[in-house]
């Protein structure tokens, strides 16, 4: 059973989401919060598997609430839900450990599938979200990225691992990466896991952000 909490300052939305998600046989909604502060109290009392997190809430917003939850309970998965097309908020939530970002207009089937995906260790890092993150960094750095990222562990990456990280930063799936680099699915999975270990990163989403932040996504694929 997947235990889900919902944080949204609009009562209608959080109640509706709770009712609909509760109809899935493999999900149980264990808490509804009107803001980040209330959510943190609920989490301390009963740690969920997944949190659906609104971005703009009073008292403590979704970006800061995500950071607080992940610092205290890194195993909890956070999916950011918002109606706002705000690049900075997208980056902030993902940087703080969110596993993905969805607009509130997403279908209930897609939302349930996303919950199952992050619970099984996946990340919702779509090309659209990646594009937002790239755009945000481009604005922050005025287009100035280093082509050779310098970070702890970066110099330990093999050519294959760097290429995989590059394509993860572009939002490609493992299958798409395998096709692009002419590798087997197993080689891509192993390369991804090895890159995460060398860089000290938690998951695919953090690797994508690292690739964007360091400018690796702008480098050519190494032959």
Structure overview:
There is one protein chain. This protein is an alpha/beta fold and 223 residues long. Residues 141-149 have low confidence and may be disordered. α8 (174-181) packs across α9 (185-199). It folds into 2 domains: 2-124, Rossmann fold (3-Layer(aba) Sandwich), CATH 3.40.50.2300; 135-218, Arc Repressor Mutant, subunit A. It is elongated, with a radius of gyration of 18 Å. A 5-stranded parallel sheet has the order 2-1-3-4-5, with helices on both faces. 51% of the residues lie in helices and 13% in strands. The chain has helices at 11-21, 36-45, 62-72, 87-95, 108-119, 127-141, 159-169, 174-181, 185-199, 204-214, and strands at 2-7, 27-33, 50-54, 77-82, 100-103.
| Total domain count | 2
What level of helicity do the residues show? 40-55%
Structural class by secondary-structure content: alpha/beta
- How many strands in all? 5
The end-to-end distance, rounded to whole angstroms, is 45 Å
Q: How are helices and strands ordered from N to C? A: EHEHEHEHEHHHHHH
Number of helical runs? Answer: 10
Q: Mean pLDDT across all residues, rounded?
A: 84
Strand order, main sheet: write it out.
2-1-3-4-5
CATH-scheme architecture of the largest domain: 3-Layer(aba) Sandwich
Q: How large, in whole angstroms, is the Cα Rg? A: 18 Å
Please identify the top-level CATH class of the largest domain.
Answer: Alpha Beta
Strand count, sense and barrel status of the largest sheet are: 5 strands, parallel
Estimate the global geometry from the Cα principal axes: elongated
Under CATH, the topology of the largest domain is which?
Rossmann fold
Spans of at least 5 consecutive residues whose pLDDT stays below 50 are 141-149
Identify the CATH homologous superfamily of the largest domain: Response regulator
The portion of residues forming beta strands comes to 5-15%
